[in-house]
């Protein structure tokens, strides 16, 4: 049966997904913008193929540890577009999401022996995950080109971190994409001090000018993560992990860890494998990138020359605030009907980060909602 025949028209909705029940436009969630026409077409096509080859009861009978051979092979092809070489499928782990993968990697790689190094402004759940597992964290300073290599070298010499977590493309929250030269420096330092790399490359599929992942420069040290929730759909929560070698993949992601819920949903894994196989993921990605570029033009126009950092492929915009408090600006915006993130939420305790706010431009379903939000933000900025 055609999967379309099982679909029924969605109930009429009068509120954009970014607007809360109390009318606030939420610009804190980094979701890719919806592209329903191409997304529905590609997903229906993929589901038809999946359901033609497997009965639902068989497909969804149980989790597949690490993924099936076919899913891992398609995952290898998917990450190979970024790494420049298709890795052995036995190094691929199909996981439920980047967050789920991190909750296995941190205790499995770092443990409580030596600290984890992270960017001084960083994806906030990583600090929470580290605290949950009793892992100490050391901050590495960042600059306009990303992670500072001299600071990283000094941390490696003094603190001896066992691993470094970083986002090298469209860093969250600063939007910085690390240059090739900087990537090479970080790889060289990691190799010298034998620091494992946990590279979260989830935003990299959105850029028009991709640079080689650091993991491709030091593969023997690297755990490379490439998720789909920021580039294809927030609800397609899947992440492919590339281990340094087969033995490490098996050691860290072993069958005795089901309580962490890291294993991918069988139907999501099968769907993604088919999307990669038939090129549907590339069609969706192209539409998302086109929509993001249009939204960036809208944001730049709406902010009327206010200073900002971003790129047409980036899901978020970083707005530095000179002579103003990010908490006060955020509070004023919330009162006016827009919710944004503040710089302090990405920093550790004991350090006052530069005053700035982050706005996510993909969450609103309609450009008109984003346009209204930008008008409110512009009026609130100094």
What does this structure look like?
Helix content is 41%, strand content 13%. The chain is of the alpha/beta class. The chain has 2 domains: 141 residues, Aspartate Aminotransferase, domain 1 (Alpha-Beta Complex), CATH 3.90.1150.10; 216 residues, Type I PLP-dependent aspartate aminotransferase-like (Major domain) (Aspartate Aminotransferase, domain 2, 3-Layer(aba) Sandwich), CATH 3.40.640.10. A 7-stranded mixed beta sheet has the order 2-10-9-8-7-3-4, with helices on both faces. A 3-stranded antiparallel beta sheet has the order 11-14-13, covered by helices on one side. A two-stranded parallel ribbon has the order 1-12. Strand 8, helix 8 and strand 9 form a beta-alpha-beta unit. It starts with 24 loop residues before the first strand and ends with a helix. The mean pLDDT is 94.
Index terms:
alpha/beta; 3-stranded antiparallel sheet; single chain; 2 domains; 7-stranded mixed sheet; globular; 13% strand; Aspartate Aminotransferase, domain 2; Aspartate Aminotransferase, domain 1; 382 residues; 13 helices
Q: Give me the side-by-side strand order of the main sheet.
A: 2-10-9-8-7-3-4
Shape: globular
What is the element string, with H for helices and E for strands? Answer: EHHHEHEHEEEHEHEHEEHHHEHEEEH
Overall helicity: 40-55%
Which parts are unreliable, with pLDDT below 50 for 5 consecutive residues or more?
none
- Count the domains: 2
Do you know the CATH topology of the largest domain? Answer: Aspartate Aminotransferase, domain 2
Query: Roughly what is the average pLDDT, rounded to an integer?
Result: 94
The number of helical segments is: 13
Name the CATH superfamily assignment of the largest domain. Answer: Type I PLP-dependent aspartate aminotransferase-like (Major domain)
What fraction of the residues are assigned to beta strands by DSSP? 5-15%
Question: Under the CATH scheme, which architecture of the largest domain would be assigned?
Answer: 3-Layer(aba) Sandwich
| CATH hierarchy class name of the largest domain | Alpha Beta
Radius of gyration: 21 Å
């Amino acid at each position: 049966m055609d999967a379309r025949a099982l679909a029924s028209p969605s109930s009429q909705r009068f509120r954009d997904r970014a607007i809360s029940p109390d009318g606030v436009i939420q610009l804190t969630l980094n979701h890719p913008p919806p592209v329903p026409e191409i997304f529905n077409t590609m997903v229906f096509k993929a589901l038809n193929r999946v359901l033609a080859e497997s009965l639902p009861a068989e497909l969804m009978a149980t989790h597949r540890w690490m993924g099936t051979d076919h899913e891992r092979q398609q995952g290898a092809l998917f990450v190979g577009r970024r790494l420049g070489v298709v890795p052995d499928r036995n190094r691929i782990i199909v996981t439920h999401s980047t967050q789920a993968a991190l909750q296995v990697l941190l205790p499995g790689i770092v443990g409580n022996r030596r600290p984890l190094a992270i960017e001084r402004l960083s994806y906030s759940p990583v600090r929470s995950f580290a605290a949950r597992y009793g892992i100490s964290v050391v901050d590495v300073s960042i600059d306009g080109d990303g992670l500072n290599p001299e600071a990283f070298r000094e941390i490696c010499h003094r603190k001896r971190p066992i691993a470094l977590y970083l986002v090298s493309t469209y860093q969250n929250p600063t939007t910085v994409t690390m240059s090739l030269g900087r990537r090479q420096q970080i790889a060289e330092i990691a190799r010298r001090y034998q620091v494992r790399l946990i590279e979260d490359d989830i935003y990299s599929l959105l850029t028009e000018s991709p640079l080689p992942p650091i993991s491709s420069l030091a593969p023997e040290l690297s755990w490379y993560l490439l998720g789909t929730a920021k580039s294809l759909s927030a609800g397609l929560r899947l992440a492919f992990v590339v281990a340094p070698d087969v033995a490490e993949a098996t050691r860290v992601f072993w069958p005795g860890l089901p309580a962490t819920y890291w294993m991918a949903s069988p139907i999501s894994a099968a769907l993604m494998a088919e999307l990669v196989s038939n090129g549907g993921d590339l069609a969706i990605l192209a539409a998302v990138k086109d929509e993001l570029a249009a939204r960036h033009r809208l944001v730049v126009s709406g902010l009327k020359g206010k200073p900002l950092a971003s790129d047409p492929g980036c899901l978020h915009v970083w707005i530095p605030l000179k002579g103003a408090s990010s908490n006060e600006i955020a509070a004023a915006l919330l009162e006016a009907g827009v919710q944004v993130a503040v710089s302090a939420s990405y920093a550790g305790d004991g350090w006052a980060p530069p005053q700035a706010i982050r706005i996510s431009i993909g969450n609103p379903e309609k450009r008109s909602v984003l346009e209204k939000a930008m008008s409110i933000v512009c009026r609130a900025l100094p």
